[in-house]
């Protein structure tokens, strides 16, 4: 492709995201869920590098909804993946091949001289006029010969035919000034479109089905090496002054692949390669939005805008509060039960706890008159605290229905108070004694 520049400061992209700037400056809101048009048939997967080669399909290609009439067809279930190599290749093309030096006279203008009918293309030794006049309509020759395409559609990169020379910026400018070369270039473009079953209908680049579209679409759907040729043709159109011709052709291919279902195997290459030969990111967005509306299954469409990340503030507000280590006995004292004012449930659970405590008290038999005085003295205080606790619990129930976050805050504040109460063992005894008195009407001696 050229000589590498020494001491280049340009950083090579390392991910697909680095290579794809399609949605970089898009300030529009995220697109709604893509909708399928009524009566539009689904398209199967496929592409330039399919995981498995699709089985050839016999008979005439299916036009709009003909697949539905023929019966159900299985879809590829594997979600496609973006190819980094494809993204990097198209990135370099759209950015004029950074990191490579352009030598003005390195190819001696051989591409221009070929188009001026002064030299034949190598290695076949055939002139451009013979290709345009004798090869046109010879689909067998155009299909099986693999050396002419690099000469008909030259690029600033090396192809499979090493006899073909790369374009330079100087040669590109000279090519655009030569009417004879431009005329033949457009004839070569029309010849290849016809080979694919497409025809050029006006000077703005709009295309339509050719008369032989059914036969040629079936061939195009099964002969996937032609997808590489289409990518090269699109690149060459952009290099030689026909960038505006690319969008109509890509839109037509997407329509046939996704909506009409006539060339479904091309859809992967169309989305991974053809769309990204277009340098204007606004045009790429239009094509990708169109494809997203008709792509099936819709959840497998991976070429749309990246999902917007939630702000850090919203994440923090939804983050649950860190749990506080609280003993079970204190949770039962202040934590609001799941079913408010279910006294029977709370009484039974408290009864189990107090019954265990009662056994311990009777076993030890260590209660004395001083303990009785402390219990009787503090019983009133405990009853008051429980009344306050009931009031706080009802208030907490109301606040929890309004905002779950406030519930966590109040629980945390109660937890702090409970931790302070833990330091006083006497209050624990008072608490359980009071529960026993209230639940079982037990009077301690």
Automatic annotation (TrEMBL):
Please list which residues make up the signal peptide.
none
Q: Where is the composition biased (Acidic residues)?
A: 15-31
Composition bias (Polar residues) maps to: 342-351, 381-397
Q: What GO cellular component entries does it have?
A: membrane
The UniProt transmembrane annotation reads: none
Where in this protein does the record put region Disordered? Answer: 1-74, 299-356, 380-423
Q: Which GO terms describe its molecular function?
A: opioid growth factor receptor activity
Biased composition of type Basic and acidic residues is found at 398-420
Member of which family? Answer: Belongs to the opioid growth factor receptor family.
The record's listing under PANTHER family reads: OPIOID GROWTH FACTOR RECEPTOR OGFR ZETA-TYPE OPIOID RECEPTOR, OPIOID GROWTH FACTOR RECEPTOR-LIKE PROTEIN 1
What's the protein name?
Opioid growth factor receptor like 1
């Amino acid at each position: 492709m050229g000589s590498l520049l020494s001491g280049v400061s340009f950083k090579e992209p390392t991910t697909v995201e680095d290579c794809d700037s399609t949605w970089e400056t898009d300030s529009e809101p995220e697109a709604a869920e893509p909708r399928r048009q009524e009566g539009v048939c689904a398209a199967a997967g496929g592409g330039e590098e399919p995981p498995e080669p699709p089985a050839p399909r016999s008979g005439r290609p299916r036009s709009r909804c003909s697949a539905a009439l023929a019966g159900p067809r299985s879809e590829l279930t594997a979600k496609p993946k973006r190819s980094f190599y494809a993204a990097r290749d198209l990135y370099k093309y759209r950015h004029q091949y950074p990191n490579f030096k352009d030598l003005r006279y390195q190819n001696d203008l051989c591409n221009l001289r070929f188009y001026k009918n002064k030299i034949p293309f190598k290695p076949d030794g055939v002139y451009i006029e013979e290709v345009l006049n004798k090869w046109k309509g010879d689909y067998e020759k155009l299909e099986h010969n693999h050396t002419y395409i690099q000469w008909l559609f030259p690029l600033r990169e090396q192809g499979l035919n090493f006899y073909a020379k790369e374009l330079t910026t100087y040669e590109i400018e000279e090519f655009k000034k030569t009417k004879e070369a431009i005329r033949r270039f457009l004839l070569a473009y029309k010849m290849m479109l016809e080979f694919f079953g497409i025809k050029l209908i006006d000077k703005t680049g709009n295309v339509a089905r050719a008369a032989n579209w059914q036969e040629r679409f079936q061939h195009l759907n099964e002969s996937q090496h032609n997808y590489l040729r289409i990518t090269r043709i699109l690149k060459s159109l952009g290099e030689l002054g026909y960038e505006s011709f690319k969008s109509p052709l890509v839109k037509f291919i997407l329509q046939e692949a996704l909506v009409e279902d006539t060339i479904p195997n091309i859809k992967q290459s169309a989305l991974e390669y053809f769309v990204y030969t277009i340098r204007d990111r606004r045009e790429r967005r239009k094509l990708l939005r169109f494809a997203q509306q008709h792509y099936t299954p819709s959840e497998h469409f991976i070429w749309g805008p990246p999902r917007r990340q939630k702000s850090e503030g919203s994440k923090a507000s939804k983050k649950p509060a860190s749990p506080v280590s609280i003993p079970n006995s204190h949770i039962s004292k202040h934590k609001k039960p799941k079913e408010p004012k279910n006294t029977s449930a709370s009484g039974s659970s408290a009864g189990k706890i107090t019954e265990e405590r009662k056994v311990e008290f009777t076993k030890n038999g260590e209660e004395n008159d001083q303990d009785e005085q402390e219990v009787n003295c503090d019983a009133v205080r405990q009853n008051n605290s429980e009344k306050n606790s009931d009031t706080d619990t009802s208030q907490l129930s109301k606040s929890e229905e309004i905002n779950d976050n406030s519930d966590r805050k109040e629980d945390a504040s109660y937890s702090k108070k409970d931790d302070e109460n833990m330091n006083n063992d006497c209050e624990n005894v008072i608490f359980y004694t009071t529960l026993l008195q209230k639940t079982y009407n037990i009077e301690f001696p």
